[in-house]
Amino acid sequence: MTGSSENYRERKEVIKPARLNIGDEIRIIAPSSYPEIISLSQSVEEITGIGYKVTYGINVKKLNQETYHSANPELRAKELMDAFRDDKVKAIFCARGGHGARQILPFLDFDVIRDNPKIFMGYSDITNLHMAINKISGLVTFHGPMPDTDTEEFRGEKLETMFKILRGELSDLKPYIKRLVKYVVEGSAQGRSMGTNMSVFSSLTGTPYMPEFTDKVLFCEDTNERSVDIERYLDIMTLNGTINQLAGFVFGEFKNRSTSGEGKPSIEDVIREYMVKYSKPSLAMAPFGHGNEQMLIPLNLKVRISESEPYIEPMESMVD
Predict the structure, then answer these.
(1) Which entry of 124, 137, 202, 282 is annotated as an active-site residue?
(2) Top-level CATH class of 5-166?
(3) Catalytic: which of 69, 130, 143, 290?
(4) Is residue 124 flagged as an active site residue?
(5) pLDDT value at position 2?
(6) In the predicted model, is pLDDT for residue 314 greater than 70?
(7) Radius of gyration over every alpha carbon of the chain, rounded to an integer in angstroms
(8) 79, 153, 221, 231: which one is catalytic?
(9) What is the phi-psi region of residue 51: left when phi exceeds 0, alpha when psi lies from -120 to 50, beta otherwise?
(10) Domain residue ranges of the chain, discontinuous segments joined by +
(11) Is residue 221 flagged as an active site residue?
(12) pTM higher than 0.85, yes or no?
């Protein structure tokens, strides 16, 4: 999509994907790095075992590798757009994250995505796509596990819970939050959800793909980051005014932390400093990120957060 700023305006009318049905086709694509076929196949076996048809995007089928990407930006964009255009496909799962999803943004047709709303799921580098699709197409998408890198999420009770939500049989997120979730600043907040990878969405600052922040709830996680990196991302939000615009925050896991040259403060100390300073209702240690806990988070959906159970609550249906 190219042209005037009007092409990139934020859609105020939110659309939801249709719910899945047993037997529906799920397309697996690789808009960032290329997948590892053995682990991917393990998850696909579990998905087909509960009654779904799985097909692959052209770059996944060809096992393409171009440096650390699955293909060049144009081909990766085509794979994604082919999935949205295909009427037989009812859900699109990203095989993995990695690097490079932002490179395909100029080649996407956001009107086609809006006219063909489908379940779209992934996280990490896929945050680039969530942000742009949420903003320009108005589609509700899902932060959620990816079949290459999160094989444990595609088994047993975790698999069952995920598909109950995608089928519209489960209207809350309680099965994911079975433990205490810490609050940073007490209080509650409501707003449309956005997120989730801090380093990725920070890299969209100043581009036409970054959504508005006003009255939204920002979900944040990351991996291989230091406390000074998290401080930098929060500084960017302070300097451009978006931290004041947000209704609240939910922080997930910060895994594989780099401690090179780092003493105090910790990541938790940095988060607390900014949340207290700006009096933002906020939760921490929520079960999502690059670790062993990977809850499904509907993005661009109205949610409510609070320091008491159920902590994170959808305020409307997640699928139609």
Answers:
(1) 124
(2) alpha beta
(3) 290
(4) yes
(5) 45
(6) yes
(7) 18
(8) 221
(9) left
(10) 5-166, 174-314
(11) yes
(12) yes
